[in-house]
Amino acid sequence: MARGILTIFLLQLSWTVHLVTAIQRKDIFPYGTPNGDFILQNGDDETSKVLALKRPLYFYEAQFNELYVATNGIISAQDLPMEKQYVDDGFPTDFPVIAPFLSDIDTSKGKGAIYYRVTESPTLLNRVAHEVHRGFPDARFTPTHAIIATWENVAAYEEIARDAGQSDRLNTFQAVVAYDENNSYAIFLYPEDGLQFFGTRPKESYNVEIELPARVGFSRGEVAFLIFSRVEGPYYSVTNNEQSLKNLYQVGNTGVPGVWLFHIGSRYSFQNVVPASTGGALATPPPRGLETYESTTAEYPEAEYTAPFEEEEELEEGDYSPITDPDFHSPAIPEFHVNSHPDRGALPGHARLQPYGGDLPLTSNPQYRDHDNIDTPTLVSGPSGPAEYPDREVQPQAEAPQAVPRPEHTALEVFPYTREENSPRLESSPPLAPGGGHIVDVVEEENFETGETKRTCAVFQQQCSQNAYCTDYPAGFCCHCRTGFYGNGWQCLPDGAPHRVNGKVSGTVIVGSTPVYLNSVDLHAYIVVSDGRAYTAISEVPENVGWALMPVAPIGEIFGWLFAMELPSGQAGFKITGAEFTRHAEVTFYPGNQKLTIVQTAQGLNSDNYMTVDTRLHGNVPFIAAGSTVQVEPYKDTYQYYPSVVTSASVREFTVVSAERGSETFTFQLRQNITYRDCHHGPRTGPETLQLTTERVFVMYVRDENILRYAITNKISSVGEETSEPVLVNPCYAGTHDCDTTAQCLPGEGQQYLCQCATGYRGDGRNCYGEGYKENLTRENGLSQCGPHTQCVNLPGTHSCHCQAGYEFGFDGRTCLDIDECRSQPCHPQATCTNTLGSFQCQCQPTFQGDGFQCFPSDGETDCEHHRDSVQTTSPEGYPIVGAFVPQCDEHGQYRDLQCHGSTGHCWCVDNRGQERAGTRKAPGAGQPNCNEPEVLPPTQRPDTVCERWRASLVDHYGGKPEPQHYLPQCDREGQFNPVQCYGDSSYCWCVDRDGREVAGTRSHDVVKPACIPTVAPPTMHPLPRPDMTPPPSGTFLLYAQGQQIGALPLKGTHMDLERSSTLLALHGSIVVGIDYDCREGKVYWTDLAGRTINRAKMEPGAEPETLINTGLTSPEGLAVDVQRRAMFWVDSTPDKIERANLDGSGRKTIFDTDLVNPRAIIVDSSTGTLYWTDWNREAPKIESSSVDGHNRKVLVKDGIGLPNALTFDTVMRHVCWADAGTKRLECIASDGTGRRVIHSNLNYPFSMVFYSNHFYFTDWRRDGVIALNRDNSQFTDEYIPDQRSHLYGVTVATTHCL
């Protein structure tokens, strides 16, 4: 009996303890001037200055762009009338009102203060999102802005003439209005003891003792009716008497007393305010008879920031669900083990004491559910607001009012899922290991009867990356990338090494009104990790959708974020997500409001250590005319980081240039969520927000190849870290270093830096070449990361473990386990299958003969017996034959495993067919082989190539230990010769052909390696054109740059010979911009924006390109050749400088690196040694000149120009001429700045220009062609449009002799 009483007492105590306490003042949203608040002027009837909203807010169904905060406990969407017109009246009001406590409040003479602000703080928006998702579990809401108004210690208005002294009753309350582009919510907060008066006396009460209760609720105000009339709009009252006002801090509708939540507006159909549906009560003893019921407080996950109730127990981690798209089948998300044990901190059937507030993922859907809400005693709170405690039996809580349905795609979505026992869950935010590496965990399983930990490093460390180590923590184990690698512990990549991504693109894209289907077309991306450049190509894209998808660079943007160049406080995405994540992005185009959904699922690293990402597209995109070009402006995007989720939202601008419509500028909004798995067992540090700066975006659709290309350059840093002021930035961060693409740039003091080859590469940092990880590992550390029955395969900068034949990877993806081939019944039905390690055997049953794969009834003799009996051991004359091998058969007539030759003494093992097992033969005196050992089959591999055999022979020649100065052929992963060969670690290098033979004239002893083309072209969907010269017939012709090729256009006099146009050089993967011709040696020179190089080639059949400069270039554009001085000049538009070098690339130096903003074109008058260039500065464009040695710099033109793209020199008139894409004019001026005249005033979009024989020839981006203009009559004389439509860049003239 006593035991039963004790049990009841404990249950009562548990019921009391586990109820929620009221919200405290310290728990409301932060306010005050330290938080950026404005303070409303003290007084009895004051209104704030207008709060202009960056985005409109929906109140009921209407949009409002302004808000006002008033003394009398209200927020309004329009300027308020005098208080006597509303303060003593009930609802509805004549104007829009949000009323947390509408009454006659007075802050005169220092009686309290009123604070207000508009905020975009991710932490606060995150907290609001959590509150909304708790109160509206089905809401899709991602707040972008919030208005916080706080009335602190404010008093009721009191007449001065009253005999009694001033009341000391003061009120404190707060209102938070948050919204996104579709919905608005309001939170009213009333802290404990925050309401000490509940009404005010009317000012004109004429000494009648009357007090009007405050009003709490919402009023739409008057709305238009018919044409000239207005009627009362809808309203919603939360309170209706003094007791309901007192209940404001005693109960709530979110599960926390004193916290009230309402859905107050939507861009879609909205009738009236909808309250949240979760009850909350103070910790008051329960009604009699209900002691054993659970509390009314739903559980929700632990917050990231310090909880207000620090003395309470730590809460369990929350559940974070993967992102899906309602229009698609859910993409595959990796499943992870969950800790499914119950909460031992609460009694069964009872919720735990919960703190109010929290910092949780800012998502658009609920992730937190109330569990076990059965027969829950609550306060009966109807739609009208808080009610009083019932006197007797507590009725079940009424079903919550349903929110007005909203269409899908109103916001980005993180959809919940019903989590059953042992279902997967995603954990919390990305931590850093003690040494700075990134970690990820697997949740620990516990046996609660024995307390035994099942998931520790000792058992499960193989779930980590092969380039990671494992650390045990009290709650589980975590994986950390080793030094020299980066990632999240599950997947680790070598520091600094370039990375590749492969995948498929599928889905339906509607262009205009035409649906286009993408059926698993290939996506390939190449990322230069060292400086954040990401190149993405999608092949086999139909033409009508190819043009339309050009603006959708966000398809490739994910790779830019994953591998962005890290500024000091930045963190690339791969360190957080690893290679397993799901990205859900929504692109909304304006003004057409078309929406395209992008779902990208990363499925880990493949056997080549490359990431696999599948992309699904669904939705509408605007139509873009064929042949159009798209320019995307640089942008900055803020990424917000939460447990297992990264989000961002931004608006981008792009310009479409087409022949039909000219230049048009549009925008689109991008909203995205990236979900991933992470670790919460180890140290928990990481970013809250980071800024991704995209400096350059290049997009193009190649019609002839049906390839869509995106090129993006990214940096990641803390928000606002970069500055627009002209400061010296370390070359590592500016991207102006000369480290190899397979090297890391390590910043030092000031402008100093160090180049360090990536893990698995060798060299001085400026020249790195791959060795393969296995070779380094075994030589330097004496160990291998591959386990038994594996083959270690070298990869660029790393390695891969492959199972030997007869083995397959186990569940961990790293341990090779024997394949039981007998399960698939490979043998004949009349044969017995015996599994062996790495293999199997088939043996025909007795009375059958054959090899086990084919068995047939025997004629009395087995194969072995027949073999034995057929061996001729004697000659026809009857003499014994020496040397004949006679097989030995067992008692069943089968071959014995061990066979020996009686004449030679050799012994070996055989299989069931009598065939010798390789490697088992032993000579006389060496003992007999053990035929019971499993047969180890060598892995299937290709034969060694010439390069590999040559390398192996030289290693033997050097005694197995070649010195650094020794030459060893460098072979690629396919065994072919690397195009660049060097002596050991030196910079003494040369080019070789595919057979390893040196290419004459390529030897160099310089830090810059010779530019060599690959010896064997990589496999592609289509054969690539050879990068060698195919010059046109002799004569004069124009040379023009068109992306990945240089074209030739012969001239007949001054007319372009369109029929004989041809491709001079096909340069796959390049973006050729600047171009010029050396008439003395007959060589063409060009800049490559994609490769960041300067190159040349001889105008002879079969001549191959030669790279002259391949370091220290960022955006090389204009190029000019000084024929007389044998020099070349170029502009680099990212570091904003002008450089020169000899024509062989030597003698490089900077001429100008100051007072330049965006240099574009450059020319040289070789006869006078004068240099001219344009600066494409939108604020102050100019054309300048100087001597070729950098002296006598001066501004030639600065007025009346806009975008001076093209520049040339009229050798006849001795004039400098330019074509302006801004003013649309072609003008000329004398070199001394006199005689300026307009040649033509109605150009389209010129880019580059050359003068020849009284004609100007310029490339035009509107027409995507070359246009000829007569200087003397200002008439267009000719036009050439290439068959392959894409932008044409530089143009020059090649003559048979120097002019």
TrEMBL record:
Gene Ontology molecular function terms on file: calcium ion binding; Wnt receptor activity; Wnt-protein binding
Domain of life, source organism: Eukaryota
Disordered: annotated span: 306-409, 920-942
S-S bonds: C900-C907, C982-C989
InterPro entries, per database record: 6-blade_b-propeller_TolB-like, Cueball_EGF_LRP_Nidogen, EGF, EGF-like_Ca-bd_dom, EGF-type_Asp/Asn_hydroxyl_site, EGF_Ca-bd_CS, G2_nidogen/fibulin_G2F, GFP
Biased composition (Acidic residues): 309-319
Cellular localisation: Secreted, Extracellular space, Extracellular matrix, Basement membrane
Swiss-Prot/TrEMBL LDL-receptor class B repeat ranges: 1082-1125, 1126-1168, 1169-1213
Main subcellular location of this protein, as a coarse class: secreted
A GO cellular component entry from the record: basement membrane
UniProt keyword Metal-binding, yes or no: no
Domain NIDO: 100-267
Domain called Thyroglobulin type-1: residue spans: 861-931, 944-1012
GO BP: canonical Wnt signaling pathway; cell-matrix adhesion; epithelial cell differentiation
Keywords tagged on the record: Basement membrane, Calcium, Cell adhesion, Disulfide bond, EGF-like domain, Extracellular matrix, Glycoprotein, Repeat, Secreted, Signal
Record-annotated EGF-like domain positions: 728-769, 818-854
Pfam families reported for this sequence: EGF_3, EGF_CA, G2F, Ldl_recept_b, NIDO, Thyroglobulin_1
Domain called Nidogen G2 beta-barrel: residue spans: 497-726
Record-given protein name: Nidogen 2a (osteonidogen)
Organism phylogeny: Eukaryota, Metazoa, Chordata, Craniata, Vertebrata
